[in-house]
Amino acid sequence: MKTESYWQSSAALPQFPSLANDLTVDVVIIGAGLTGITAAYLLKREGVKVALLDRQRVAQADTGHTTAHLTYVTDERLKDLVKSFGRDAAKSFWEAGGAAIDQIHDNIRQLNVDAEFKWVDGFLHESFNGSDAKDRRSLEEDAALARELGFGAEFVRSIPAFGRAGVRFANQAKFHPFKYLAAMLQTIPGDGSHVFENTEFSEVKSDPMIVHAGRHKIRCEYLFIATHTPLLGKAGMLKGTLFQSKLALYTSYVLGARLPKGTLPEALFWDTTDPYYYLRVERLADHDFAIFGGEDCKTAQEENPEEVFARLQRKLKEILPGAEVQQRWLGQVVETDDGLPFIGENEKQQFIATGFCGNGFTLGTLAAAMARDQYLQRKNPWFDLFRVNRKQFHGGAWRYVTENLDYPYYMLRDRVAPADGDSLDDLKLGDGKILQLKGKKVAAYRGSDGKVTLLSPVCTHLGCLVKWNPADKTWDCPCHGSRFKPEGDVFSGPAESPLKRLTE
Predict the structure, then answer these.
(1) pTM for this structure?
(2) Architecture of the CATH domain 417-502
């Protein structure tokens, strides 16, 4: 079974060189995912010289593992947003998502690219695990409140294909993200702008601002850190780490399955299970292709990822008996302590964006437009709502405490927990384990060629012990969600340094 995403297997992205010399630009953007690529594209259209950097291939981390729902419907139910933030703020949050979809649509027209963009309905509906009268009343309330706030919503007693009650939201969308990103990427290099792959940011110095990446330097006026979890950049260790503790990283499990043509309408679906299931369909030449996900849990805190995939596959076969699973992959979602994303300057001339929850492509696009406006000193209606240094809204303080209870628990638990073995003979090809060797815990990985890599299991973020994720072949940290490649390089933050290499 393929373990790459549908997008990675069905479209290619252009390749770019590594940074090979010093240079000067207006804006440096760290992170070539959807947010960074869009920001570079929008700034370049304004005549701004940009350098877009990624430590690996463009759009291969979290962006490459998206399910690409384009919706203003947030993970947090609308009535809960109103309760926490008030009607105006809740409405503004949803309007931000709508504006982002419009921005994507406008970009596609400007690029004149066939990105398979299509306006579709979105359905929030009763749980796939069963429902009751309370669940249905809640959905009726959602529909009424959404209409009051000006959104195209209606309660329906039977949604298409599944016969469950739900809310139909008009003017949602879907598209092929890699075809969209490829077109944007091709427009960025030239006229003083650049895209660099396999180029790792190391630090930034002020007055003048100089970004260090590998052995080279880029002088700039402005820095946008567009990584999934923001790097420290100009923020000090204490301030940066405290901010990162406001974020909680969750892993979402995704299946790609062949369906008989016409099984489902081209629409977006989310149910009311907690964590919720989500579904969309692609129309192909002789069949349909369903993308079905859910079973979200905090990164590295699921004891058996294979069993999670098995549960998800059983659920898919239950609701769509004709589904033939062909692919599976993992995505990562960043939640915040109050339910709103953090988008804005956290230091002078340094912009960050994170905490997009289940709306990565809409809020990432919005963040890119906000970064452009901040650099060009334009007004933007969402600067205040999503500002990074906002005070806690109602409920945020308690969520902050509960999300960070994991840190001391896993910090202590994993240090006293037994290792997975005490001999390298326990390692199979392509396998990783925490082994007890010479009295110390070691993260050991045996590649397909038989070569063994030994690493310190101590996460370089805040010192928790990583664990092996056999489903994705990564070392994952259960405290704050950092992920590392089998040989120890950072796959996704908040960690910025690789796991320490050890010798036998």
Answers:
(1) 0.80
(2) 3-layer Sandwich (2.102)
